[in-house]
Amino acid sequence: MKYIFAILFSALLANNLDAQIYEIGVFAGGSNFIGDVGATKYISPNQLAIGGIAKWNRSPRHSYRLSVIFSELEGIDAKSDDPRRKQRDYQFNNSILEISLGMEFTFFDFDLHSLDTKGTPYLYSGLTLTNYDNYYFSDAGVFTSENKFSWAMGIPIVLGYKTRIADQFILAAEVGARYTFTDEIDGSVPSSEDTERYSFGNTNNNDWYMFSGITLTYTFGRKPCYCNF
Protein backbone atom coordinates (compact mmCIF):
# COMPACT_ATOMS: atom_id res chain seq x y z
CA MET A 1 0.00 0.00 0.00
CA LYS A 2 2.85 2.47 0.78
CA TYR A 3 3.96 2.37 -2.87
CA ILE A 4 0.45 3.28 -4.08
CA PHE A 5 0.27 6.30 -1.80
CA ALA A 6 3.74 7.37 -2.91
CA ILE A 7 2.68 7.23 -6.57
CA LEU A 8 -0.55 9.16 -5.91
CA PHE A 9 1.29 11.82 -3.90
CA SER A 10 3.99 12.21 -6.55
CA ALA A 11 1.35 12.63 -9.26
CA LEU A 12 -0.23 15.45 -7.31
CA LEU A 13 3.08 17.20 -6.69
CA ALA A 14 3.79 17.13 -10.42
CA ASN A 15 1.08 19.79 -10.81
CA ASN A 16 1.26 23.37 -9.52
CA LEU A 17 0.50 22.92 -5.81
CA ASP A 18 -0.28 26.57 -5.14
CA ALA A 19 -2.92 26.78 -7.86
CA GLN A 20 -5.58 24.29 -6.77
CA ILE A 21 -6.89 22.28 -3.85
CA TYR A 22 -5.93 18.62 -3.71
CA GLU A 23 -7.09 15.67 -1.62
CA ILE A 24 -5.32 12.42 -0.85
CA GLY A 25 -6.50 9.64 1.45
CA VAL A 26 -7.82 6.12 1.92
CA PHE A 27 -10.87 4.04 1.07
CA ALA A 28 -12.08 1.21 3.34
CA GLY A 29 -15.22 -0.87 3.06
CA GLY A 30 -16.60 -4.04 1.54
CA SER A 31 -17.31 -5.63 -1.83
CA ASN A 32 -19.88 -8.00 -3.28
CA PHE A 33 -20.23 -9.66 -6.67
CA ILE A 34 -23.24 -9.92 -9.00
CA GLY A 35 -22.94 -12.44 -11.82
CA ASP A 36 -23.57 -16.08 -12.74
CA VAL A 37 -22.38 -17.53 -9.41
CA GLY A 38 -23.61 -16.67 -5.93
CA ALA A 39 -26.27 -14.31 -4.60
CA THR A 40 -27.72 -11.50 -6.69
CA LYS A 41 -28.29 -8.92 -3.95
CA TYR A 42 -27.02 -5.55 -5.08
CA ILE A 43 -25.72 -4.19 -1.76
CA SER A 44 -24.42 -7.05 0.36
CA PRO A 45 -20.71 -6.58 1.26
CA ASN A 46 -19.00 -9.85 2.14
CA GLN A 47 -15.29 -9.17 1.54
CA LEU A 48 -12.89 -6.40 2.62
CA ALA A 49 -12.04 -3.67 0.10
CA ILE A 50 -9.24 -1.18 0.77
CA GLY A 51 -7.24 1.31 -1.27
CA GLY A 52 -6.09 4.86 -1.90
CA ILE A 53 -7.82 7.87 -3.44
CA ALA A 54 -6.72 11.26 -4.79
CA LYS A 55 -8.73 14.24 -6.05
CA TRP A 56 -8.03 17.45 -7.89
CA ASN A 57 -10.82 19.94 -7.14
CA ARG A 58 -11.29 22.10 -10.24
CA SER A 59 -14.32 23.96 -8.86
CA PRO A 60 -16.73 23.83 -5.89
CA ARG A 61 -18.94 21.54 -7.99
CA HIS A 62 -16.59 19.04 -9.66
CA SER A 63 -13.32 17.17 -9.10
CA TYR A 64 -11.07 14.83 -11.05
CA ARG A 65 -10.65 11.61 -9.08
CA LEU A 66 -8.21 8.70 -9.14
CA SER A 67 -8.48 5.59 -6.97
CA VAL A 68 -6.75 2.23 -6.61
CA ILE A 69 -8.67 -0.45 -4.68
CA PHE A 70 -7.85 -4.05 -3.75
CA SER A 71 -10.49 -6.64 -2.86
CA GLU A 72 -11.63 -10.24 -3.06
CA LEU A 73 -14.81 -11.05 -4.97
CA GLU A 74 -16.77 -14.01 -3.65
CA GLY A 75 -19.77 -15.90 -4.94
CA ILE A 76 -21.47 -18.80 -3.13
CA ASP A 77 -24.46 -20.49 -4.75
CA ALA A 78 -25.64 -21.81 -1.36
CA LYS A 79 -26.34 -18.20 -0.30
CA SER A 80 -28.45 -17.44 -3.38
CA ASP A 81 -32.25 -17.17 -3.39
CA ASP A 82 -32.33 -19.06 -6.70
CA PRO A 83 -33.07 -22.77 -6.05
CA ARG A 84 -31.24 -23.75 -9.26
CA ARG A 85 -28.05 -22.12 -8.03
CA LYS A 86 -28.42 -23.74 -4.62
CA GLN A 87 -28.72 -27.14 -6.30
CA ARG A 88 -25.66 -26.45 -8.49
CA ASP A 89 -23.66 -25.40 -5.38
CA TYR A 90 -20.75 -23.62 -7.08
CA GLN A 91 -18.55 -21.11 -5.29
CA PHE A 92 -15.60 -18.93 -6.26
CA ASN A 93 -13.15 -16.41 -4.85
CA ASN A 94 -11.12 -14.08 -7.07
CA SER A 95 -8.71 -11.29 -6.14
CA ILE A 96 -9.06 -8.01 -8.03
CA LEU A 97 -7.14 -4.76 -8.39
CA GLU A 98 -9.20 -1.82 -9.65
CA ILE A 99 -7.83 1.44 -11.04
CA SER A 100 -10.51 4.07 -11.56
CA LEU A 101 -10.30 7.54 -13.10
CA GLY A 102 -13.16 9.96 -13.64
CA MET A 103 -15.08 12.98 -12.42
CA GLU A 104 -16.99 13.61 -9.20
CA PHE A 105 -19.96 16.02 -9.25
CA THR A 106 -21.43 17.53 -6.07
CA PHE A 107 -25.14 18.38 -5.73
CA PHE A 108 -24.24 21.65 -3.95
CA ASP A 109 -21.19 23.91 -3.87
CA PHE A 110 -18.40 22.35 -1.80
CA ASP A 111 -15.85 25.14 -1.41
CA LEU A 112 -13.24 23.95 1.11
CA HIS A 113 -12.23 27.56 1.84
CA SER A 114 -15.73 28.59 2.93
CA LEU A 115 -16.70 28.27 6.59
CA ASP A 116 -20.27 27.56 5.45
CA THR A 117 -19.22 24.34 3.70
CA LYS A 118 -20.60 21.41 5.69
CA GLY A 119 -21.60 18.54 3.41
CA THR A 120 -23.15 17.51 0.11
CA PRO A 121 -24.28 14.44 -1.82
CA TYR A 122 -22.19 13.61 -4.89
CA LEU A 123 -22.06 11.41 -7.98
CA TYR A 124 -18.95 9.83 -9.47
CA SER A 125 -18.41 8.11 -12.81
CA GLY A 126 -15.65 7.54 -15.33
CA LEU A 127 -13.71 4.43 -16.34
CA THR A 128 -12.28 1.49 -14.43
CA LEU A 129 -9.57 -1.00 -15.28
CA THR A 130 -9.82 -4.22 -13.29
CA ASN A 131 -7.20 -6.95 -13.02
CA TYR A 132 -8.37 -10.49 -12.15
CA ASP A 133 -7.21 -14.09 -12.45
CA ASN A 134 -8.79 -16.44 -15.01
CA TYR A 135 -10.64 -19.54 -13.82
CA TYR A 136 -13.17 -22.10 -14.99
CA PHE A 137 -15.36 -24.74 -13.34
CA SER A 138 -14.38 -28.31 -14.21
CA ASP A 139 -16.89 -31.10 -14.88
CA ALA A 140 -16.68 -31.91 -11.16
CA GLY A 141 -17.58 -28.32 -10.26
CA VAL A 142 -14.07 -27.44 -9.05
CA PHE A 143 -12.99 -23.80 -9.45
CA THR A 144 -9.79 -24.29 -11.48
CA SER A 145 -7.12 -21.74 -12.37
CA GLU A 146 -6.11 -21.12 -15.99
CA ASN A 147 -2.75 -19.82 -14.70
CA LYS A 148 -3.13 -16.40 -16.28
CA PHE A 149 -4.80 -13.07 -15.62
CA SER A 150 -6.78 -10.48 -17.59
CA TRP A 151 -7.71 -6.81 -17.51
CA ALA A 152 -11.28 -5.59 -18.06
CA MET A 153 -12.61 -2.09 -18.58
CA GLY A 154 -15.75 -0.96 -16.82
CA ILE A 155 -17.95 1.95 -15.80
CA PRO A 156 -18.34 3.02 -12.16
CA ILE A 157 -21.66 4.46 -10.94
CA VAL A 158 -21.17 5.87 -7.44
CA LEU A 159 -23.47 7.79 -5.09
CA GLY A 160 -22.10 9.25 -1.86
CA TYR A 161 -22.22 11.96 0.77
CA LYS A 162 -19.19 13.91 2.03
CA THR A 163 -18.65 16.38 4.83
CA ARG A 164 -15.79 18.34 6.33
CA ILE A 165 -14.88 17.02 9.79
CA ALA A 166 -11.90 19.36 10.39
CA ASP A 167 -10.15 22.21 8.60
CA GLN A 168 -8.28 19.84 6.27
CA PHE A 169 -10.10 16.50 6.51
CA ILE A 170 -13.08 15.27 4.47
CA LEU A 171 -15.09 12.19 5.44
CA ALA A 172 -17.37 10.52 2.87
CA ALA A 173 -19.62 7.46 2.68
CA GLU A 174 -20.46 5.95 -0.70
CA VAL A 175 -21.98 3.00 -2.52
CA GLY A 176 -20.76 2.25 -6.04
CA ALA A 177 -21.64 -0.28 -8.74
CA ARG A 178 -19.09 -1.33 -11.34
CA TYR A 179 -20.35 -2.60 -14.67
CA THR A 180 -17.55 -4.53 -16.36
CA PHE A 181 -17.05 -5.41 -20.03
CA THR A 182 -16.31 -9.04 -19.18
CA ASP A 183 -18.14 -12.17 -18.04
CA GLU A 184 -15.01 -14.01 -16.89
CA ILE A 185 -14.52 -12.93 -13.26
CA ASP A 186 -16.62 -15.75 -11.74
CA GLY A 187 -15.26 -18.45 -14.08
CA SER A 188 -18.51 -18.80 -16.02
CA VAL A 189 -16.75 -17.91 -19.29
CA PRO A 190 -13.18 -19.29 -19.54
CA SER A 191 -10.71 -17.15 -21.45
CA SER A 192 -8.97 -20.05 -23.24
CA GLU A 193 -10.30 -21.84 -26.32
CA ASP A 194 -9.24 -25.13 -24.72
CA THR A 195 -11.68 -24.60 -21.85
CA GLU A 196 -14.44 -22.84 -23.78
CA ARG A 197 -16.73 -25.86 -23.41
CA TYR A 198 -16.99 -25.15 -19.66
CA SER A 199 -18.95 -21.92 -20.22
CA PHE A 200 -22.29 -21.66 -18.47
CA GLY A 201 -24.87 -19.13 -17.31
CA ASN A 202 -26.16 -16.12 -19.22
CA THR A 203 -23.26 -15.26 -21.51
CA ASN A 204 -25.12 -12.12 -22.71
CA ASN A 205 -24.87 -10.45 -19.28
CA ASN A 206 -21.52 -9.16 -18.07
CA ASP A 207 -20.28 -9.19 -14.48
CA TRP A 208 -21.01 -6.48 -11.91
CA TYR A 209 -19.46 -5.82 -8.52
CA MET A 210 -20.12 -3.31 -5.74
CA PHE A 211 -17.92 -1.31 -3.38
CA SER A 212 -19.55 0.12 -0.24
CA GLY A 213 -17.45 2.07 2.23
CA ILE A 214 -15.95 5.32 3.47
CA THR A 215 -13.14 7.61 2.37
CA LEU A 216 -11.04 9.89 4.54
CA THR A 217 -8.99 12.49 2.68
CA TYR A 218 -6.55 15.22 3.64
CA THR A 219 -6.74 18.50 1.71
CA PHE A 220 -3.83 20.79 0.82
CA GLY A 221 -2.95 23.65 -1.51
CA ARG A 222 -3.61 27.38 -1.52
CA LYS A 223 -7.00 28.95 -2.12
CA PRO A 224 -7.76 28.56 -5.85
CA CYS A 225 -9.34 30.98 -8.26
CA TYR A 226 -12.27 29.15 -9.81
CA CYS A 227 -13.27 32.00 -12.12
CA ASN A 228 -11.54 30.47 -15.16
CA PHE A 229 -13.34 27.11 -14.92
Automatic annotation (TrEMBL):
Signal peptide from the UniProt entry: 1-19
Domain DUF6089, first and last residues per copy: 4-228
Coiled coil: none
Record InterPro entries: DUF6089 (IPR045743), OMP/PagP_B-barrel (IPR011250)
Record's protein name: DUF6089 domain-containing protein
Organism: Winogradskyella epiphytica
Domain of life: Bacteria
Keyword vocabulary terms for this entry: Signal
